[in-house]
Amino acid sequence: VFALIIVGLGFWLTQQKGDAALFRISTVKKAEKLSGLQFGSADRKLMMEDISSNLENYESIRNLRIPNSVQPSIQFNPVPIGAQFDKIRRQIRWSPAGEISRPNNLEELAFASVAQLAELIRTRQVNSTELTKMYLSRLKEHGPTLECVVTLTEDLALKQAARADREIAAGKYRGPLHGIPYGAKDLLSVEGYKTTWGATPYKDQMIDDNAAVVKRLEEAGAVLVAKLTLGALAWGDVWFGGKTKNPWNLEEGSSGSSAGSGSATAAGLVAFAIGTETWGSIVSPSTRCGVTGLRPTFGRVSRAGAMALSWSMDKIGPMCRTVEDCAMVFNAIYGPDGQD
Known about the structure:
- α5 (128-146) packs antiparallel against α6 (154-169).
- The chain has 340 residues and is an alpha+beta fold.
- The model is unreliable at 17-21 (pLDDT under 50).
- The chain is built from ten helices and ten strands.
- The chain has helices at 2-14, 25-35, 41-62, 114-122, 128-146, 154-169, 212-219, 259-266, 283-289, 323-333, and strands at 149-152, 181-185, 223-228, 238-239, 242-243, 245-246, 249-253, 272-277, 292-293, 315-320.
- It has a six-stranded mixed β-sheet with strand order 1-3-2-8-10-9, with helices on both faces.
- It has two domains: 2-62, no CATH class; 106-333, Amidase signature (AS) enzymes, CATH 3.90.1300.
């Protein structure tokens, strides 16, 4: 709705002449009445820069003459004409994890890579429940300062971790994500938990289904410990609960819109996180917070169960502490699912 107000106001302003084209707070208030919403003065001030920018964009569009015969671009296909690709899915050989042993203080593993944590779990030096409790503790301690957590999924996480421990003890090891705690951007639906989209009108929204990427990570044995913040309606780093911080500089925001995913991963509150990108929402917070983000090619990962910002541009990808970690997560979530 916020985005629609900005777009609508931008279009309205392009119709005005002279002084009437100047943006005013009163115009936003009128739009609020039409939309059945009410914003505070701080929210209206945040809108002003975007509306002015959109006004310039609309003026440029109006000056662009496109004949009626030109069809819109409604499909994106990255494959060059006539190109053929190998369609066989082969097993990946990951880099050797190297020697790693359990520290006396488990919290020393907070910043370990997925590959290192996976080796500790595989060799049964550490179990998933221990790791999950450690990350939950860090989320509770540092999440309020960073304003990067919307909802802790503690009950679900402990159940998933206990199941992972039982399976691994029985010799059923699913792979490098088995038993690894992670966080998901809160525009991905999770059954039994709120999916707020970071916006006040949806802060109590319940979507009783799991997003496709959440299902695939569960199949890989990963443990969901938290739903992480995003800028309201996938825009920036300001959400209904505050402004998500950069862990390395609390005076600045984490950037967005995968704000909590970048902040929590950089701060060692999760082993990895899932973000989404329409236009910079993985790469920007990854750059700001100093993590590794992978923005996959459009269509590579199913968006079923995710909030749609742009049907022709939205992408889902991992945010991790190493490049190989991103490859491990991506390997578990990519591929068609028949829904998207």
